[in-house]
Amino acid sequence: MYFQALCKVLMILCVLVSSSRALEADAENVPCDITIQDSSNLTLNCSRRNIDEIPEKWPETLNNVDKDGHVLITFFNNTISNVSQIPAVPGKRVAISFKSNEIVDIEDDAFSNIERLVYLDLSNNYISGEVLRSEIFQGRYIDGIYGSIALETLNLGHNDIHSLDRYLFQYTPNLTRLYLNNNPIEILDHVTLLALSSAVNLQVLDLAKTDINSIPLDAFKGLTKLQQVDLSDNGFVTVPESLSLVGGSLKYLTFNNNPINQLNDDSFVGLTNLIELEVGENDYLEEVKSSTFSPLKNLRVLHLCHNRNLRYISHKAFLGLKDKWTLKEVYLDDNYLSELSPDLMPWNKLEILGMTGNNWLCNCELANIVTDQGAGAKFQIGEIPFCAAPMRLSGAYITNITLPYCPTLNSEPKNTRGFSLSNLKPKHILYSILAVALIACLGMLLGLLVNAVKSFYNKKIKSQPIRYININSDTSFA
């Protein structure tokens, strides 16, 4: 009986294992999903299919796309190691993603059949700088010349890139967005700078987490259209001066998690057209000095958050900007601030203000900012800061504090009667006369004392004058 039961269990297990393996085999052979919104928009989803090589042809449905249509093909999370030449794709704008594969090599002419390729994601692979070369992106070979492709966005993030080939972007004249984040670049060497400078239409450059700590002064030379730069999670101790070279076009700067100690009047020199600035998660940042933001004449959004040691912002940080104020959103959340000056900025001109996560001292100055200048109306719902001190107000919303002893919060009209002699009482007049007489007497006594001392000095202490004689004519020496 026992042996028969054991055999039945083993048979059931064998059936289950065989079934699971069959399901896995079927899953590996599941065709890519095709989603068609209309004749102008098609998505070919080949994600998580255990695909290890580029297909030789596409499903027939792909050919139904209108010639002006948009096509997205994604091979996300497969095991492709080599990108060979990709079959032609119809449509006016084509996007292909190879994110999270095992790519270590890309063949020449890999994208030459897709002249309208505008978006290419090669992130999260094992691509090195040696693999990246201009031949990868060259277009069709016609009349002895290689053409260009329409590539606008290239994502190379999370790879093994140390340097770029100087001719890498030779066949991508329309490149506007380049993501190099999370690569061990460390140093922007000469050939990398030549490669970057050749991408003259570049608008977005992501260099976050690339282990760089400096940028050569001429790094952005020729990039007159550069609008957005991300330098987060690197080793900068100051904001790179080289950014001023693109100050006329730069609109968005992200500068999070760098070991800077302070921001000062040199930090953002030349960035006159910057619209949004983000400086957060900088654990070493302690102070924002006078005139720090003065060059930012068009700034609209300021993120100064999550700097856990930031405890001081100068009341002149926005010096020269108050008459032509452009800031609409200011976020000061999760710092180590306890006080701010009422003169820091025109608080009533803001649209959004964030101040949560700080150690606010609820004193007269803060009450002035929140109540008199209307900052309390700029907090978003559920984002109202708390008082940390004094103890009697700890935990209270700063919008609820009332400090009647603060003169700036006293709305009652003050008595401003003018002064006249009729306001004086007789005793006041008497006290005044006695005080004048006393001062005069003391002055006379002091004068007499000084004269007496001088007289004594002249008679008793001061040396007699030296007399000179002619010993030849004096008879007492004869």
Automatic annotation (TrEMBL):
It comes from the Eukaryota. This is Chondroadherin isoform X1. The chain crosses the membrane at residues 429-453. The keyword Membrane applies. Pfam families: LRR_1 (PF00560), LRR_5 (PF13306), LRR_8 (PF13855). Keywords: Leucine-rich repeat, Membrane, Repeat, Signal, Transmembrane, Transmembrane helix. SUPFAM superfamilies: L domain-like (SSF52058). Residues 1-22 form the signal peptide.
